[in-house]
Amino acid sequence: MSHHAAELLAGAQPLWTEAAAYDEARRLLRLALLRDLVRTLHAERSRLMALRQPDRAETLKKLEPILERLRTCELDSFDLAGLVNGDEPQNPLKEEPQDPRLDRILGEGKLDRYDRAWEAAMAVEALKRGWLFWALDTQVEVPKAEAFHLGLGQRL
Asked: What is the pTM assigned to this prediction?
């Protein structure tokens, strides 16, 4: 693994370890951390490609599918730092159908898109923990919002 990839993982390790203290929310917190790590990794890969450093970008690309597999694995005993040493995720979880309550709560098909896999995993985990979902439906007067936005920039 590249030094660059190891640095990204090392930066996430303290939060990964801290999540262990939250028994009921451990998996949910770790899923959120992994989602953010994958997004950071992807953005960094894009930056390296733009800087014409494809070799460095390629080493990060190899880490992405490994992190993606973690979404469907048991995370309690997995050590994120182990990825630096070449450890691979084990213990895949039994794939369960998406809870139909999610479609009722969030809207049908909202989590079915390919780019919503992390959010779907977190929503399923939150339902298992009994967490509540809520939504706010409100009207916004666009001219007033724009005026506020412009005024805020001027006041800052």
From this structure: 0.76
Q: How far apart are CA 28 and CA 19, in angstroms?
A: 9
Q: List, as own/partner pairs, every contact residues 17-26 make where C-beta atoms lie below 8 angstroms and the sequence separation is at least 24, other chains included.
A: 20/76, 24/129, 25/129, 26/75, 26/76
Instruction: Give the Cα separation of 147 and 144 in Å (integer).
Output: 5
Q: How far apart are CA 108 and CA 105, in angstroms?
A: 8
118/36 Cα distance (integer angstroms): 10
Average pLDDT for 36-52? 91
CB atoms closer than 10 angstroms to residue 74? 13
Listed in sequence order, the residues at least 6 apart from 112 whose beta carbon sits closer than 8 Å to its beta carbon are 98, 120
